[in-house]
From TrEMBL:
Residues 5-85 form the GST N-terminal domain. Residues 87-212 form the GST C-terminal domain. One of its GO terms (molecular function) is glutathione transferase activity. PROSITE patterns: GST_CTER, GST_NTER. It comes from Saprolegnia parasitica (strain CBS 223.65). This is Glutathione S-transferase. It holds the Pfam family GST_C_3. InterPro entries: Glutathione-S-Trfase_C-like, Glutathione-S-Trfase_C_sf, Glutathione_S-Trfase, Glutathione_S-Trfase_N, GST_C, GST_superfamily, Thioredoxin-like_sf. GO terms for biological process: glutathione metabolic process.
Length: 221
């Protein structure tokens, strides 16, 4: 099912909490426009217009609605674009993996505010997350078998985030112990518009330090 255009994503010009949503939109082939926040006035305008149900971004305008809360919006997109299973046990596996991805990426979100790669790497739990995902993916193309789900997309985003921080060579070296997961990363990366969005970020996003400055001046100044 096609998503009604236009789609606008409201967030800062960096990854943060929003990137799973942008990646999901790219994976399903839904074009979107970014409306980047830079100042406190930008966020205040959204709040004053009652566009943010809980006063927070990210917010995605699509299908006549203003969607907040990342996990709920991911599930909306998953159900709409046939990236969510119909069986209860498979739904649990999808939901649990998506929740694990949210936990796994948390140390990565802090990088912009410290630029301390060593600290980020030491906090990234390879044994808990990549090792488990590699185990689940061994012998299959996707988490649930032959068909991709939103859980596959969110796993891809975690690895993509790591690669963005540390570079491709170090990323490949750090994940070489997880061959099924790396093969899955390459496979999912061919979905929809993911390759195009990955390339577009180099011109659409600001650098990590500038992103952190925009976040701080929006929230605290």
């Amino acid at each position: 099912m096609a998503t009604t255009n236009p789609i606008t994503v409201h967030y800062w010009a960096g990854r943060g909490m929003c990137e799973p949503l942008r990646v999901a939109l790219a994976a399903v082939g839904a074009p979107f426009t970014n409306q980047f926040l830079e100042t406190k006035a930008d966020l205040t305008a959204l709040r004053d217009a009652n566009d943010l149900a809980y006063g927070q971004v990210p917010m995605v305008e699509m299908d006549g609605g203003k969607f907040v809360q990342v996990q709920a919006t991911l599930l909306y997109l998953a159900r709409k674009h046939n990236l969510y299973p119909s069986e209860l046990a498979a739904q649990y596996m999808c939901d649990a993996t998506m929740a694990a991805c949210a936990d796994a990426r948390r140390p990565l979100t802090g990088y912009a505010f410290t630029l301390d790669g060593a600290k980020v790497k030491s906090s990234f739990n390879f044994a808990r997350y990549p090792a488990k995902w590699d185990e689940l993916l061994t012998g299959r193309d996707y988490l649930l078998g032959a068909t991709a789900s939103m859980a596959d997309v969110t796993m891809w985003e975690v690895l993509d985030f790591y690669e963005d921080i540390f570079g491709t060579a170090l990323f490949r070296a750090d994940f070489k112990a997880y061959p099924a997961l790396l093969a899955h990363y390459d496979r999912v990366g061919r979905m929809g518009n993911l390759a195009q969005w990955k390339a577009a970020r180099s011109t659409e996003f600001v650098d990590y330090a500038t992103y952190a400055r925009h976040v701080n001046q929006t929230l605290y100044e």
